[in-house]
Amino acid sequence: MDAELQRQILPVETLDFESRMLDLVARKDLSTLGHSNRVAELTREWAEFMLSRGSWVGVDPARLESAARLHDIGKVMVPDAVLLKPGPLDPAERDLMNAHAEAGYEMVKSHRNESYAALAVRHHHERWDGRGYPLGLEGDQIPFQAQVVAIADAFDAMTEDRVYRKGRSPEEALVEIERCAGSHFSPVRVAEFVQFIHARNG
């Protein structure tokens, strides 16, 4: 049965936690849902690649994928006028948008099985140099899952077309990811991501 049709037939309380959260996103903005799904798929593929190379031992790709899929859940709390604005945000609007990380964390952390995902949700906009949000964590203070999701999130965002700009090619996005190693992103995670994307694209 089609997943959308299933959502229409089954009462919300019968859906698992992740499905309930994604249903909220779908009702809010389908483009955010599409982005979340692509980031999740990219993250799972990356994790499986690293495990196949003997790295990321102990990492569960399914668990990491779920964390990635929930990373933008807090955007359901962002006003439509800000979330759906067809252009760059002004400073006040940017503050409202940035609040999605903390809002999403509050939504996810209370679920007994989602503490791992909650940390990815809260910290995927932290920066390696400590200039990110919401807490200004730096370096390895940033949880592993948030380090991973941050890169997959940025890569998909850069390659996606927006109303006000054309998406970059995967090659251009990868160059930008590499440029931001040590400032926005973990240098180790960036090197791993570059290796993964090159292998993925043959």
Oligomer: single chain
Tell me the domain tally: 1
Uncertain stretches of 5 or more adjacent residues: 4-14
Percent strand equals under 5%
What is the number of strand segments? 0
Cα distance, first to last residue?
Answer: 34 Å
Mean pLDDT: 90
State the CATH topology.
Answer: Hypothetical protein af1432
Full CATH superfamily name: Hypothetical protein af1432
Work out the helicity level: 55-70%
Tell me the radius of gyration: 17 Å
Q: Tell me about the largest β-sheet.
A: none
Which CATH architecture is right?
Orthogonal Bundle
CATH class (first level) name: Mainly Alpha
Helix-strand string: HHHHHHHHHHH
Shape: globular
Number of helices: 11
